[in-house]
Amino acid sequence: MARLILLGGQQMLAFVFRNYHLTRRYFGWVVVFSFYAVVNSATIALIGVAMNDPRLTMTLVIGAMMWGFLSQLFNDVSMAIAYERWEGTLEYTFMAPVSRFAHLIGESIYAVFYSMIRLFLILIGVALFVDLDLSHTNWIGLIVTLMVSSLAFIGLGLIAATLPVMSPERGAEATNIFQGSLLLVSGIYYPVEILPAWLQPLAKLSPATYALSACRKLMGVGSPADETGRFYGAPISAILPELATLLLMGW
Amino acid sequence: MISEHSNNGCEHAIVVRHLKKSFRKRKRQRYFRYKVTEELAVNDVSFFVSPGETYGLLGPNGSGKSTLIRILSTLLIPDGGEVRVLGHRLPEEEKAVRWKIGRVSVDAAFYKKLSARENLLYSAHLYGLNPRSAEKRAFGILERLGIESHRFSDPLEEMSRGMQQKISIARALMINPPMLLLDEPTTGLDPKSRRDVQKFIEQLREEEGTTILLTTHDMAEAERLCARIGFLAKGKIVAEGTAAELRQQAGVVSFEDVFIRLTGENLSEDLT
């Protein structure tokens, strides 16, 4: 039993090892895409600055950051199989004595680490353009929320990852449509309530809706600002319903 | 009828009986109307390979060679018939088979941006091997195949096809498998690389007693390496035997003529 666990661990490590070296070898593109993500997030946040509305600015920053994190994570996990098909290595992975569980968990572990590092780099980049006061943010709560929401997004990513196995082209296309739909219904940059009534129920099915709601509370966007315009992040107890829903979705 | 055992009483390394595999193809007609056709890729194929034997499967493109290799490497599930690899039934015991086979295919499937070393270490982790000893073994194989050690850290995209194919062989042998499935391993290689690979396969058979199933378009290679050869045409084995037996059966001298006579097909265009 212990030998099997060790073997499973080593096989998961194989995917972390491979993805780490692929990131290293494609570092130029990593820089390019990260630059684009920083500029994209900053331009969205600057809409709030132009409106001279700190609450709107913070809402947009949180939306851009969280969507950057969750979409990267979803993309990395969901495209794991499609990517191997493009590289031409899928047959070798499938004929290796590796369970699909170890394969996809290995991919997911690296995706979570990569997405988190990218998120913090983008946050630093956005801070160069927008004056963010994060001194009263509940950082521990934010990390907990990121971890818990990762589970739900990994779950969705794993479902999507199997689509290219069934149909290579159509599967990859369906994954992108699904990702776009999540962006639409989850209220990333706006309240869900402004969506057409027929779309609003779908927001309840998206883990991003709950992740964003929790992050806004933890960064104090939902609470009134004090006389200096500072926002005070809520304690973890205030986001327990969101965490419970995300855990349930991840499960 | 194929017996379960070879002449020396050992169980055959590969037993294939009445194997069938077809693929459904959907062709678009008009708007949302599709015509579904079924193509038989492998049609009632039976053969066996003894332990330590090198068996050659020759046939024109589309004759079913790669489909057969994919079935034996657990990537495809047969529609009918029986397949046993090293005593394990497929597809029921595919996990056990995966630990025991190495495969080299016509295109060296690697992460081209990664170096030879990174690709090999990735495989070592997948097979639960000690990375250091696996790396040592793989580098030993590469040196025997004529790759200089200073190239191990180069990205594969900077290497020639011949070098990539040699790394693919090292990857397959790194796990020390009792059986090797070689799917056109020398197609597209220059004469020097082809000779290196062929010499290495011969050494491997003699030193390690590895069972090898080889598909190739190169008649001279098949004659040189294979103890027995099966000719596959349109999904069926149309002739089988030693090179001398096949020559006698066809009544011609050149092995290329033997192939044409027995399969009723011209040699593949990609014959090199």
**Coarse morphology of chain B:** globular
Helix content of chain A: over 70%
Residue fraction in strands of chain A: under 5%
Protein structure class of chain B: alpha/beta
- Rg of chain A (C-alpha, Å): 19 Å
| Integer-rounded radius of gyration of chain B | 19 Å
The first-to-last residue Cα distance of chain A is 24 Å
Into which percentage range does the β-strand content of chain B fall? 25-35%
The gist of it:
Chain A is mainly alpha-helical. Chain A has helices spanning 2-25, 27-50, 54-78, 80-87, 90-95, 100-127, 139-161, 163-166, 168-185, 200-203, 207-218, 240-250.
Question: How would you describe what is shown here?
Answer:
The complex is a heterodimer of chains A (251) and B (272). Chain A has 251 residues and is mainly alpha-helical. Chain A has one domain. Helix content of chain A is 75%, strand content 0%. Chain A is built from 12 helices and no strands. In chain A, helix 6 packs across helix 7 (139-161). The longest helix of chain A is centred in the middle third of the chain and has 28 residues, at 100-127. The model of chain A has no long low-confidence stretch (mean pLDDT 88). By secondary structure, chain B is of the alpha/beta class. Chain B has a domain at 113-176. Helices cover 35% and strands 26% of the residues of chain B. In chain B, strands 6-7-8-3-9-10 form a 6-stranded mixed sheet, sandwiched between helices. Chain B starts with 13 loop residues before the first strand and ends in a 9-residue tail after the last helix. The model of chain B is unreliable at 268-272 (pLDDT under 50). Chains A and B meet through helix 1 and helix 5 of A and helix 3 of B.
